[in-house]
Amino acid sequence: MSAGIRIHNATKSFGDKRVLDGIDLTIEEGTVTVILGPSGSGKSTLLRAINHLERLDEGYVVVGGELIGVRVHRDRLKELTEKQILVQRSRIGFVFQNFNLFPHLTILENVTEAPISLGVPVATARERGEALLERVGLGDKTDAYPRQLSGGQQQRVAIARALALEPDVILFDEPTSALDPELVGEVLQVIRTLAGSGTTLVVVTHEIGFAREVADRVVFIDDGRIVEQGTPAEVLDRPQHQRTQDFLSKVL
Amino acid sequence: MTAVTQRGAETTATARPLRTPVTELPPGIDLDRLAARSVLPLRHPGRWIATALVLLLLLNFGETLFTNPSWEWAKVGKWFFSPAIITGLQLTLAATAISAVVSFLGGIVIALGRLSTNPVLSTLSWLYVWLFRSVPLILVLIFLFNLGNLYPTIGIGIPFGPQWEVKTVTVLSDLTLGVIGLSLSEIAYSGEIVRASILSVDHGQHEAAKALGIPRGRQFRRIVLPQALRSIVPAYVNQIIGLLKASSLLFYVSLLDLFGVVQNLGSTYPTDIIPLLVVATIWYLILTSLVSIVQYYVERFYARGAVRALPPTPLQRVRSWLRPITGGVR
Fold first, then answer.
1. In which element (H, E) is residue A59 found?
2. Which residues pair with A67 in a beta bridge?
3. What is the Rg, in whole angstroms, of the alpha carbon atoms belonging to chain A?
4. Of B214, B223, B305, the CB nearest to A145
5. Are B219 and B209 a contacting pair, CB within 8 Å?
6. B305 vs A88: CB contact, 8 Å cut-off?
7. Would you say the C-alpha torsion B100, B106, B108, B110 has a positive or negative sign?
8. Which end of chain A is more exposed for a tag (fewer CB within 10 A), N or C?
9. A156-179 burial, b for 16+ CB within 10 Å, e for fewer?
10. Partners of A8 in the beta sheet?
11. What pTM did the predictor assign?
12. How far off is chain B from A175, nearest CA to CA, in Å?
């Protein structure tokens, strides 16, 4: 149910712009890591590289001892087939900033779609889906469609959908940035309950308070490089670098 | 000196409201008393006059339907269900229905081809669309009906290797050729409709499906296509209605569809031309109306989840109007 992550020399350019510039990062299994950084710093790209939604130009990502999206082929790293990548992704949950729920499916169908497509019997998937929706506080809404729910509720469904595959790792890409301020709390509360469960969580967010309270490690990224990392106390309260200090003074 | 007086005039003007008010509070009226009464909505007399005029013209025309003997309604009634007309109708229906299904499936293939990252597939799909959108349908049909002259035998084989061949005339009946002709041209259009609709599905949907590890075929069938269908349906029904009428071109390649039958009967019974045209018109109206009704319900089905609550269907609305009268029975 859990796996560590090792990223080595993650490098990626979009055209002339180098968004990731040789990032090395190790994330212990079962921990919560918060990635901070100004917009355009490469933090979302790094997160998306972990489940190979973004292909790296150089470098690799290992999750739970398995190379993600690539294999070793004649002394090079070669991209896997789409089918193989899809299997790997099913073990890595991803929660999007804009939820990306399937609007034409009920929220229960949203949660059960992936398990059913991967061979879980329909009855089992439904049972588990109902339990998961119960767990995120939406047990009474299983037949509603996503657009009938508030943003906070939709994001909780998205988390349940990610959990349905019992992933080793869950990646959160600014999960509260699209929400009205009063709905942020309910989503963070759900993420908080996952923190102790043994699943490795990686969260890109601007919620400094959440980082301070829940994170085991905080990583600050700017210009495609890790500027500094450490415990929340180290990075948030005693930042060593000018850039970190500048960023924190703007968001706090 | 003049400037000073003007400035003085301005200062006094600003003491009053900036512009003349549209309504003034009339003195001595208790507004709160009026607040309890319902507000009179604005009337639109111009609209009523226009409506009356249009209705008048319409009634005038309606009257001629009864008074002008040339309509010959008795003959319309006689021809309406005549075996010849019904046979033509069946051919129209069969050709349209088969072509509609084939074109839809073919359209998906062409759309996926055009969206493919494989340059050969996308170029070939583009060429197909280019070719069949350029050539008039009537030309395609006449070409096909001369296929026997162009290719007396058709076959498939490995270049310079073994070949399998059959005689063109024996395998392809006239109706088959007609359907192929209609479909070839229709696929080019439906391919573009499907492609545009797939592109309109939010990129996040593809991404979420990928992130969940849903297999590719299922991503398309379960996630992308159902959302694309929301915009495919209205556009494609338009195409089907076009197809229904385009099938009248089959007459020019000696197939007797509804229009063809009417045309033939018209030359046999020249005095019945007007009633025969009326018969064909009414049948086309009926077919198109049926398609529109089906469209309404299919669109509704694919709108689920797209809006917070679906509006009631016309039937449901009628039922809810009738409820007070029927006393909620049934």
1. strand A58-63
2. A62
3. 18
4. B305
5. yes
6. no
7. negative
8. C
9. bbbbbbbbbbebbbbbbbbbbeeb
10. A60
11. 0.80
12. 14
Mutate to test the interface with A, among B116, B117, B202, B212 (most CBs of A within 10 A): B212
Residue A107 scores a pLDDT above 90 = yes
Q: Is B302 on the interface with A (CB under 8 A)?
A: yes
At B3, the pLDDT band (50, 70, 90 cuts) reads very low
The residue of chain A nearest to residue B300, with distances taken between CA atoms, is: A104
Measure in Å the smallest separation between the Cα of B202 and chain A Cα atoms: 9
Q: Position A44: which residue type?
A: S
CA distance B143 to B135: 11
Residue A96 sits at the chain B interface (C-beta within 8 Å):
yes
Nearest to A215, CA basis, from A225, A227, A198, A201: A201
Indicate the residue type of A228. E
The length of chain B is 330
List, for residues B75-107, the tens digit of each pLDDT value.
Answer: 999 999 999 999 999 999 999 999 999 999 999
Interface TM-score (ipTM) > 0.85 = yes
Asked whether residue A120 carries a pLDDT value surpassing 90, the answer given is yes
Record: contact A104-B306, CB cut-off 8 A: yes
Q: Which pLDDT tens digit goes with each residue over A47-75? A: 999 999 999 999 999 999 999 999 999 99
Which pLDDT band, with edges at 50, 70 and 90, does A1 fall under? low
Asked if the C-beta of A98 comes within 8 angstroms of chain B's C-beta atoms, the answer is yes
Which of A 190-249 lie inside 8 A of B, CB atoms? none
Q: Does B8 touch chain A (CB under 8 A)?
A: no
The answer to whether B204 contacts A98, with C-beta atoms less than 8 Å apart, is yes
- Rg value, chain B, Cα: 32
Identify the pLDDT of residue B152.
79
CA–CA separation, A167 and A162 (whole Å): 7
Pairing of strands A217-222, B153-157: unpaired
Of B211, B215, B227, the CB nearest to A104: B227
Q: Which residues, other chains included, contact A167 with Cβ-Cβ below 8 Å and sequence gap of 6+?
A: A90, A91, A92, A93, A199
Instruction: Identify the burial level of A224 via C-beta atoms within 10 angstroms of its C-beta, where 0-12 means exposed, 13-18 middle and 19 or more buried.
Output: buried
3-state secondary structure of B144: helix
Alpha-carbon span A41 to B24, nearest angstrom: 60
Q: What is the pLDDT of residue B14?
A: 52
Contact A83 B204 (CB under 8 A): no
Tell me the pLDDT tens digit for each residue of A11-61. 999 998 999 999 999 999 999 999 999 988 999 999 999 999 999 999 999
What CA–CA distance (Å, rounded) separates A216 from A230? 8
| Interface with chain B: mutation pick from A45, A111, A117, highest number of B CBs within 10 Å | A117
Give the CA distances from residue B313 to residues A10, B42, B310, B316, B320, in Å, rounded to whole numbers and listed in that order: 55, 30, 9, 5, 11
